[in-house]
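thread from #wetlab-drylab

HS: before we spend reagent money on co-crystallization trials with S-adenosylmethionine, can we at least see a predicted complex? here's what I'd submit
DV: go for it
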Amino acid sequence: MLPEAVPEPRHSSPHRRSPRRPDDEHDDHDDAPAPAPAADPFGRWLKLAASVIANSSRTQPADAVLREHLRSTRDWTKAETAQASQAVFAFYRWGGWINGELKLESQIRSALEFADEFVRRPQAFTDEELLARTLPEWVNAALPVSATWLRALQAEPTLWLRAKPGRAQSLAQVLGHTQPGPLPDALGYAGEENLFRRPEFHAGEFELQDIASQAVGLACAPQPGETWWDACAGEGGKLLHLSLLMQGKGMVWASDRAEWRLKKLKLRAGRAQCFNYRAALWDGGAKLPTKSRFDGVLLDAPCSGIGTWHRNPHARWTTTLDDVQELAAVQLRLLDHVAPSVKPGGKLIYSVCTLTRAETEAVTATFQKAHPEFAPLPLMNPFQASESPRPQLVLWPQDTRGGGMFIAGWQRTH
Ligand SMILES: C[S@@+](CC[C@H](N)C(=O)[O-])C[C@H]1O[C@@H](n2cnc3c(N)ncnc32)[C@H](O)[C@@H]1O
């Protein structure tokens, strides 16, 4: 199964030329031994992976290109699909380690060797090496980069499910290959089945949702009977969670500027039997989709997506500092526009799946300065129940075992 796509990565991926690790025992020749899987002696998966990489760019994210390749030629076996997918993601995950002078197929093999080595001997990769090679240089200026975070980024991501409240245990028994998560309804899935084909999925028994995204719904803590607005609802991942937490009572408005995303939201809502919502297009401008005032507004804003780089490694090489700055301006504008829709006493929750200072603390500080009618609202950290609630939660992948997320809360005082 492919990792979830990040919405809008841009621009072409540089195939970085970097020296090999000094202790690497393999040579740099193009005929270096491949990890030839017995199931696929002809290496079709390798050619598929190479074609995906060659056709990926800033505007054509690797996961979308891979899906397109798989759709256009349907004779790939399950093993080939899995191997090609693993190879493409390893290539971008280990991009800073591989020798860009090799032929592309040899680079891919080399990336797979690094991935394998990291699983077997993680300590063979020193912190210094990880800090120097895992990410592009600009990231160091944008957020505090630690070796612990990079180790989490380089590991194979866990696929997280969100079961209907209270049903995680029974779902785990039916699905198999699951591990309980750190949040109440979360299950990590390590099986090989296509979960989109499971009857339980079609019956709305679970959603695929990263654990860090599940934390956003919990931080909102909506109550049955309230009215909420999920202003950047996209395909509805968080909307469905809000609705469940409200036990289907009350109303959630869902808006987005992308009509196609709202169409997918409607399909998902039907499957999840979520009926207490209303969808409307909103382009993010000052003209809002409704004049209603809400008990809570969630702004899950478009962002640089750095918190998803564990499962979307291609975006590490296509995202730029300019993106971060442009997105921070968009986030502030969206916050300004939604703020008047919060009732006195109501909540405003801002979330982004990124951790750059510009899109987190800088956006919230600027918003706070311009909006004295909002007071910081302490939020419970769902991963650290014993911790005192704080108005801002910075969730790092090494703590969530999934993505990274920033969540800030305010309450309207007047
Ligand atoms: C982080 S995603 C939302 C994900 C969604 N909340 C979920 O849980 O599945 C951000 C969303 O903001 C939307 N968006 C981007 N720019 C926008 C704008 N200027 N106005 C309104 N929505 C915008 C995108 O279409 C995207 O769906």
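DV: Residues 7, 213, 232-238, 256-258, 261, 282-284, 300, 302, 330 surround S-adenosylmethionine (CB under 6 Å).
HS: ok that's useful, forwarding to the group
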